[in-house]
Specification:
With 448 residues, the chain is mainly alpha-helical. It has 2 domains: 12-217 and 320-444, no CATH class; 225-316, no CATH class. 67% of the residues lie in helices and 0% in strands. The chain is built from 24 helices and no strands. The protein has helices at 3-6, 10-21, 24-28, 37-46, 56-63, 71-92, 98-111, 113-118, 124-139, 146-159, 166-183, 187-216, 225-236, 238-246, 265-270, 275-280, 288-297, 300-318, 340-347, 350-353, 357-377, 386-409, 414-431, 433-436. The protein is globular and about 75 Å long. The relative contact order is 0.13.
Length: 448
């Protein structure tokens, strides 16, 4: 058997690609922790609902961390990521050289945001995978085998269970494709997959409620969405305007704190001295925050201001492409006691000692600039294949949708955008394939 034929095995290809994509693990000593991820670990190990968040990722950690081994969930999510990229590379884009695929995975892991996203104990990687499966369903579904179609449907539902923000992002993507199909006069022929995608997206949102019902006996998608909306109103000045119009109101405890606003969302949500935590509580048991949210969304002027501020924040969000938010050195956390076998791994990791993400971002920018210049030199942007054009359009739609939703609903944050921006790197690598394939042995091509 030829040595190269060994690497034609799909399982082996996916496993090797997963190791290459998660290469920050090689020298970081431990999966990466964003401060919020400790809540997923802590509540997941306890088997309880995660306060303020969707609990699916916490269950994922619990089910796939035997003995508290937190390496396994990261390797599993890296494997799912590698399988998705392999399917996109070989099956959708029709690129056939495994050695080049492995090289791309290594560079994506080492010098793009993808490696750090894959190696992080957060559901971010599932957010982008969920959206990525939409293009398989909308643009390439008819040419796939039956078992590939079934896998796409099942995995799309699975990935969409991990974050509540997936629903608005994917619905915005579906709306954009509905408009594109309408302009292309293809809406009638694409109506069935488009409608089915909307149904599946809504069904997955209901699935989040089933996850919470499994853990708590109560069906709900989020008990804290009103608090996060009002926090956003607080920092944009919308809450101040609302209170000026509706106070004094003895039924609204925020009226006595009008002088405190505008207030940063983080302070409003988490400070023990904030009006939220002193007067109402994050879960809004009396519906005080719900009345504010309904009042803002039913007021045309305030709703317009929310839309305008969301657009401005979304544009700002699109430009936040540096790694490192929340991944620097921070103090020892008490939640580490729930996975004692790996606490020493975390305490000795480079992350706790402090990673110089400035140097990491230099490498990421250098690779991006090199890919763009090399593509221009080889005229790679001309005569793109039809799948490449469709993939490029999807990436643009995803980047805009992700920025608009996250910018509108939360304070702009680098992590929200870099988790999807790595697709630009992948698209550039694929665009360069015709220019570099002759440097690799044609005998290494695989059959799909």
């Amino acid at each position: 058997m030829r040595f190269s034929s060994v690497f034609e095995n799909p399982l082996l290809q996916t496993t090797l690609a997963a190791l290459l994509l998660s290469c920050p693990l090689w020298y970081n000593g431990c999966p990466l922790f964003y401060p919020d991820s400790m809540g997923y670990v802590f509540w997941g190990m306890k088997g309880e609902v995660v306060p303020e968040r969707v609990s699916t990722y916490a269950l994922f950690i619990k089910w796939f961390s035997p003995g508290g081994n937190i390496w396994i969930p990261v390797l599993i999510q890296s494997f799912l990521l590698a399988g998705t990229i392999r399917f996109l590379w070989f099956r959708i884009l029709g690129l056939q050289i495994p050695v080049l695929f492995f090289l791309v995975c290594f560079l994506l892991g080492l010098a793009s945001p993808l490696g750090w996203t894959a190696a992080m104990l957060m559901p971010d990687i599932f957010c982008v995978l969920s959206s990525l499966f939409l293009i398989f369903f909308l643009e390439f579904f008819s040419g796939l085998r039956w078992w590939e179609k079934a896998a796409i449907l099942v995995l799309y539902l699975f990935f969409s269970l991990f974050h509540i923000g997936i629903l608005p992002i994917n619905m915005l993507i579906l709306s954009a494709y509905g408009l594109i199909f309408l302009l292309q006069k293809k809406l009638k022929s694409r109506a069935l997959p488009l409608v089915l995608a909307v149904v599946l997206t809504c069904f997955s949102f209901a699935g989040i409620g089933l996850v919470h019902w499994h853990l708590s006996g109560t069906f709900f998608t989020s008990k804290t969405s009103n608090a996060f909306f009002v926090a956003r109103f607080s920092e944009t000045g919308i809450l101040n305007q609302y209170l000026n119009r509706h106070c004094p109101d003895p039924a609204n405890p925020l009226c006595s704190h009008r002088s405190d606003f505008p207030m940063q969302a983080e302070v409003f949500l988490w400070s023990p001295d904030s009006p939220l935590n002193k007067e109402i509580g994050l879960y809004d048991p009396r519906g005080d925050l719900g009345r504010v949210v309904n009042g803002v969304f039913s007021d045309p002027a305030l709703l317009a201001k929310f839309a305008i501020s969301g657009l401005g924040s979304g544009l700002k969000q699109m430009l936040l492409l540096d790694l490192g938010d929340g991944l620097g050195s921070y103090a020892e956390l008490p939640q580490l006691n729930v996975f004692t076998p790996n606490a020493s791994d975390y305490l000795g990791s480079k992350q706790r000692a402090g990673i110089d993400f400035q140097h990491v971002n230099y490498w990421c920018r250098a690779l991006l600039v090199f890919l763009v210049l090399f593509a221009l030199r080889n005229r790679a942007f001309f005569n793109l294949s039809n799948p490449m054009e469709k993939f490029g359009v999807f990436i643009i739609i995803l980047l805009i949708s992700n920025a608009l939703v996250n910018g509108a609903l939360a304070t702009p944050l680098n992590r929200y955008q870099v988790r999807v921006f790595w697709l630009v790197y992948l698209w550039l690598f694929a665009a360069l394939y015709p220019a570099v394939k002759n440097y690799f042995s044609s005998s290494a091509a695989i059959k799909t």
